[in-house]
Amino acid sequence: MKTRSRWQRFKESYFLHDFLHDKVALTSFGILVVLLFMGFAAPLVAPFNPYDAHNIDIMNAEIPPSWLPGGDSNFLLGTDAQGRDLYSTMLYGMRVSLIIGIGAVALQAFLGIMVGLVAGFMGKRVESILMRVADVQLSFSTYMVAIFISAIFQAVFGVAKYEEIAVPLLILVIGFAEWPQYARTVRASVLAEKKKEYVEAAKVIGLSQKRIMWRHVLPNTLSPVFVISTIQVANAIMSEAALSFVGLGMPVTQPSLGSLINVGFEYIFSGSWWITMFPGIVLVVLILVINLLGDWLRDFLNPKLYKG
């Protein structure tokens, strides 16, 4: 009998069938793919480079969108207060927001999985210490930790140095602030998996505790991690936007969706509403489609809602 390839098994899976028959999930995925492509391919698809001083003319500041009176066909969505093409700046800004969101979640997942796996598998004493550390971390909000670290760094090293490492610093700050959610989820899954027969069988045949933990228990605890990760990407992007809005996120010279909203907010009442409005709409759509996909994945992985 011929063995089916992984691709053939995937095409026949209930996962793909359910996904293709869920219009909300399919539409959200399509929009997310477009946004991801436009963000990461910004240098290729953006008409202008907002980092290139030769493309910026202060005389072009606050030009309205091209379809409004006073608009310029060269600037589809108008320009910001610095004279940068808003459409191009939004694409570059979306790339920065996505990099921070994905990077922060990768760090959260790594720290949380490691701590949760060790806490659930190594016994009461280690578990108690690690979970108390997680509880202390949870007592501080993400914004409190991020604002505290960002403000201290800017005060000690200056704004110029902060601008150089703003992206990795925000990834570190947001990632470090949210790892306990992963740790608690993985720990609970590990405690449930430890009692199952396959773990006892692995012990009987002489497999080491480390091998059992990494090769057998860990893969069976990752389903809830995938669900958390989709939601946490949206939360990380929102955290970056909130920090940028209060001036502790991305600097104006390196635009993100949050920093664009912050800069444009100063001009919204003077009539230049597009500087804030369009980045705000993109941010809302991006977070919405990620959350909708996360909701679908959570429902799919919930055995109580299985529709097969």
UniProtKB/TrEMBL annotation:
Bilayer-crossing regions: 24-46, 96-119, 140-159, 165-182, 217-238, 273-294
Q: Where in the cell is it found?
A: Cell membrane
One Gene Ontology CC term in the entry: plasma membrane
Query: Has the keyword Repressor been applied to this entry?
Result: no
UniProt keywords, alphabetically: Cell membrane, Membrane, Transmembrane, Transmembrane helix, Transport
Question: Sorted alphabetically, which Pfam families does this protein's record hold?
Answer: BPD_transp_1, OppC_N
Where the record annotates domain ABC transmembrane type-1, the positions are 94-294
Gene Ontology terms: biological process: transmembrane transport
* Membrane topology category: Multi-pass membrane protein
Q: Does the keyword Transport apply?
A: yes
Which superkingdom? Bacteria
Instruction: Report the sequence similarity comment from the record.
Output: Belongs to the binding-protein-dependent transport system permease family.
PANTHER family, alphabetically? ABC TRANSPORTER PERMEASE PROTEIN, OLIGOPEPTIDE TRANSPORT SYSTEM PERMEASE PROTEIN APPC
Name under which the protein is recorded: Binding-protein-dependent transport systems inner membrane component
- Source organism: Maridesulfovibrio salexigens (strain ATCC 14822 / DSM 2638 / NCIMB 8403 / VKM B-1763) (Desulfovibrio salexigens)
For this protein's source organism, the top of the classification is:
Bacteria, Pseudomonadati, Thermodesulfobacteriota, Desulfovibrionia, Desulfovibrionales
